[in-house]
Structure formats: C-alpha cells, structure tokens
C-alpha cells in the first residue's frame, strides 16, 4: 500500500480530485484492515471511520516520512552540518464565501472535525492578532494576501532540510502567520535531534526568522550559528542619525551619541530600582534634555523631540553575533544554499501539483504535507543513489 501511495505522488500522477481521494483512502483502508486488492470494501461510513480513526491515530504518514529520512541517512545523503528552514503557502480547501469577519469570531453552531482541532499553539493560539476573516468549515486556515493573487485561505508547510543534498529532515503544518512558522522551526530542530540525533552547526533562513527572540534562542539556548538576516527596523530614511550611529558601552550600559554625550536607561535615581524593560522586550536609553538643547547635531539627531531616545533589545547581544556572521564568506555561501529549500517548494507545487489541499483541518494538512515530503525524499534517493547492477545470467 505504501509503495502504491508513494509511486503515485513520485510520478506526479494527478487525476480528477474525487477519484484521487478515493484511491488513496481505499488503499489506506485495505492496509489497516488487512484486505487484499480482491476483497470487497465495506460501505462508506465504515471506511470514513477507519480513515479518521485508526489511520490518523497511528500517525502512519509521520512514520513513513521518518523512514525516508532514516534511509537517506543510511545512504550518506544527510551531512548534518548545515540546515535550512522556510515555509510556503498552500491553498486550503475552503470556499471564500463561507466565512465570517474575524472580529465576530467563530459562531457557536460551527461544528466539525476541523473546528475541534484548534487547540494546537501552531494554529488556534499562534498569534493574538485577530484574522480579517474566519472560514466556517476550516477555521485553522488563514486568510492571507501575501501573494500577488487575490486573497485566499491557506496553510503553511514548513520544511527543515539538510543542505548537503536538500533532503527534507522534518516537516510541519502551521497556520500562515510568521509567529507559527518560527514556532515550527524550533519544534523541527528539537524533534530532529531527538528522533535522529543530528544537530546543525548553522541554520540558514530568511528575515522572517530573524527576530531578536528567535536569534537568541538559536545562539544562546541551542548553540547554532544563525545565517539569517537580522529583522531590524531601526533604519531611517530622513537623513537623521540611526541607532547604528550610537556606540554601545557594555561596561556602564549606556550609549555614546555622535557628539560624545551619554544616553542611559534613566537619568535620575529611583528609590525602587527599575529594570527599564518594556513589554516587547526592549530597553529605551534617553539623553538629557540639557545635552540635546545645545548640541550642534540637534536638527539631524532629534529635531522633533526635546531629547534623543535609542531602543535596544534585551537580545541585542545575539543580534550582534548574527551581524558579525553576516560579514563572513560562509554567510555568502549560505545565502546561495538557501535556494535549495525554495526549489523544493517549487517542485512541490509544479511537479507534485500540491498547490491546493484535498483535506481540511490541521490534521488533514499534516497528512498531505508528510506524504508529499516523503515522496520528495524518495525521488531524491532515486535520482542520486545508483541502481544495482543486474546479476549475470
């Protein structure tokens, strides 16, 4: 059964949607019920119960995907030195008109399997931001306008790949928001170490993974070199001084402005010490008003405020480490290697034709993404590993 499932995806065979679903589910049912191809299949209600019950509870497709990773490791296709991570949008099987505004929330009469699968932090609790619209039949899907096309409901498939031969070492389905994709990256890295015992020395990703908290998690908690652009909004386009023009002094925890004046967390003493850390994990350093009033750089530094302020993240040390990595030759190599994960997504949509999901709900998305990733790994092995020579007659 597994071979027939994978061969269908590997060859890119895509027939009419309903027929394809029936074939895949029919094969899965026969395998679990130990029926051969000549045995009669029971009615649809029993078939659906087995599909959504034992088939899903057994996590078969996750096991199947991990089997392909283990085989790739056995064949020496996984080096483990460098990983890359990225996410791609896949259309959900949702009708655009069957939805409600996000501020109204999901109505109480909305029921179904997809509705009951919202407890995962990667889906229902991924972000506190209220979505613009919520799909009634698949509320875990996300209304997004991230592409040039008209807005649509989607899921994100997250790939963690080894950079040696672009083998997919882990895959996870999430809702299409950046916070969920960063959470998926952490889960996949930890799960890969736990399951296969491999740990990357460097991680390659785009700016979506360059938040201060995530870089600190990689550098300080996991000891991984992030070859990732730093997510930084401190740049200015009005010609005024940026934060990079101020020099940080770690000894007394202060900034030195271009005119040589100090910016500190506080310019007064409090009876009860204050940390100065805001809810967003940033610290504001302020100059004294008397220093700014007579400064010759006032119009270029702080023309609209009585004193200049500079914001620093509590994870700025990790961001500085990543900025130093970005000046190396290895970083330039990593930026080129990141295209390997983008090519896998192009292959997923153009060759395997997985540009729209067949199943609904987070579990349905997981099943399809695991099956497609397993097929891509098998195609990789078929392309790289030479065929054995036939035995002489």
Walkthrough of the structure:
The protein is built from twelve helices and 13 strands. Residues 9-21 and 44-49 have low confidence and may be disordered. It is an alpha+beta fold and 393 residues long. The chain folds into three domains: 1-58, no CATH class; 78-205 and 338-393, no CATH class; 243-314, no CATH class.
Helix coverage percent of residues? 25-40%
- Derived from helix and strand composition plus strand pairing, the structural class reads alpha+beta
Count all strands and give the number.
13
Judging from the principal axes of the Cα atoms, what is the shape?
Answer: globular
Strand content: 15-25%
Task: Give me the strand/helix succession.
Answer: HHHHEEEEEEHEHEEEEEHHEHHHH
Report the end-to-end length measured between terminal Cα atoms. Answer: 32 Å
Oligomer: single chain
Poorly predicted regions are 9-21, 44-49
Rg from Cα? 26 Å
Number of helices: 12
Provide the residue-averaged pLDDT: 81
Biggest pleated-sheet summary? 6 strands, mixed
Q: How many separate structural domains?
A: 3
Question: Nutshell version of this structure?
Answer:
With 393 residues, the protein is of the alpha+beta class. The chain contains 12 helices and 13 strands.
Strand and helix layout:
Layout (H helix, E strand, L loop, with lengths): L1 H9 L6 H17 L10 H14 L2 H15 L7 E10 L7 E3 L31 E3 L6 E3 L7 E11 L4 E9 L2 H19 L5 E3 L7 H10 L3 E3 L19 E3 L4 E3 L5 E2 L18 E5 L2 H5 L4 H4 L7 E5 L2 H10 L3 H9 L1 H12 L10 H24 L9
Parallel strand pairs: 1-7, 7-8
Antiparallel strand pairs: 1-5, 2-3, 4-5, 5-6, 9-10, 10-11, 12-13
Helix pairs in contact: 1-12, 2-3, 4-12, 6-9
């Amino acid at each position: 059964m597994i071979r027939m499932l994978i061969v269908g995806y590997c060859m890119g065979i895509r027939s009419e949607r309903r027929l394809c679903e029936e074939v895949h589910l029919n094969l899965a049912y026969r395998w679990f019920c130990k029926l051969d191809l000549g045995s009669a299949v029971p009615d649809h209600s029993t078939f659906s119960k087995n599909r959504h019950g034992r088939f899903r509870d057994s996590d078969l497709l996750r096991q199947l995907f991990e089997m392909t990773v283990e085989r790739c490791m056995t064949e020496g296709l996984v080096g483990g030195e460098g990983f890359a991570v990225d996410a791609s949008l896949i259309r959900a099987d949702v009708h655009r008109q069957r939805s409600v505004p996000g501020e109204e929330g999901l109505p109480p009469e909305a029921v179904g399997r997809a509705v009951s699968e919202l407890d995962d932090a990667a889906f229902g609790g991924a972000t506190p931001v209220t979505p613009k619209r919520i799909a009634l039949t698949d509320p875990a899907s996300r209304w997004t306008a991230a592409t040039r096309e008209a807005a649509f409901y989607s899921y994100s498939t997250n790939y963690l790949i080894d950079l040696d031969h672009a083998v997919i070492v882990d895959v996870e389905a999430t809702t299409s928001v950046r916070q969920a994709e960063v959470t998926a990256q952490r889960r996949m890295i930890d799960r890969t170490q736990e399951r296969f015992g491999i740990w990357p020395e460097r991680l390659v990703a785009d700016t979506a993974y360059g938040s201060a908290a995530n870089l600190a998690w990689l550098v300080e908690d996991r000891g991984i070199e992030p070859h990732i652009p730093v997510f930084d909004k401190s740049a200015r386009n009005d010609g005024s001084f940026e934060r990079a023009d101020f020099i940080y002094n770690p000894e007394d925890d202060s900034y030195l402005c271009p005119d040589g004046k100090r910016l500190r967390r506080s310019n007064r003493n409090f009876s009860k010490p204050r940390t100065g850390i805001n809810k967003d994990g940033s610290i504001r350093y302020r100059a004294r008003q008397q220093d700014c009033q007579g400064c010759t750089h006032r119009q270029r530094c702080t023309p609209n405020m009585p004193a200049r302020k500079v914001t620093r993240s509590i994870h700025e040390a990790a961001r500085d480490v990543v900025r130093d990595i970005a000046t190396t030759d290895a970083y330039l190599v990593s930026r080129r290697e990141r295209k390997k994960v983008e090519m896998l997504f192009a292959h997923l949509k153009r060759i395997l034709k997985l540009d729209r999901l067949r199943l609904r709900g987070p579990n349905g998305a997981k099943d399809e993404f695991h099956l497609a990733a397993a097929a891509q790994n098998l195609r990789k092995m078929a392309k790289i590993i030479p065929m054995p020579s036939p035995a002489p007659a």
